[in-house]
């Protein structure tokens, strides 16, 4: 695949990630972001997914006017952890049910990453912040779990099929 086509595909995947998150902002922590980052990691690999995640995090923070360290750094760290963990420690996780369980547990890790930044920048109490975060992490965990359980395999097959078809067409035309 040519570099231009590859860049276009990665750009489209970044836009899909960004738009899907923005479309669900009216529902606190209900999103398909974890699903898409896991899907991208499995299809495109860690490095390309990290690029998608960095661009997405910058765009997300810019559109919400929050390029503040209190939100930008934990969000960037949180979203980049998914491809890093799935490319190393949890490389063996391939089935939707295992990835769904990973996403549920990971949702608490993601939420808890914000706590030190919140405490440092606002002076908030640790226990209060932790307790207030649990319902939001739970909502993220449930939405991530269900979206992966229901959508991971069909989306993986669809996107991977398109990429294989594209590669076959390029090979045929050569």
Automatic annotation (TrEMBL):
The chain crosses the membrane at residues 33-59, 71-90, 96-123, 130-152. Keywords: Membrane, Transmembrane, Transmembrane helix. It comes from the Bacteria. This is Uncharacterized protein.
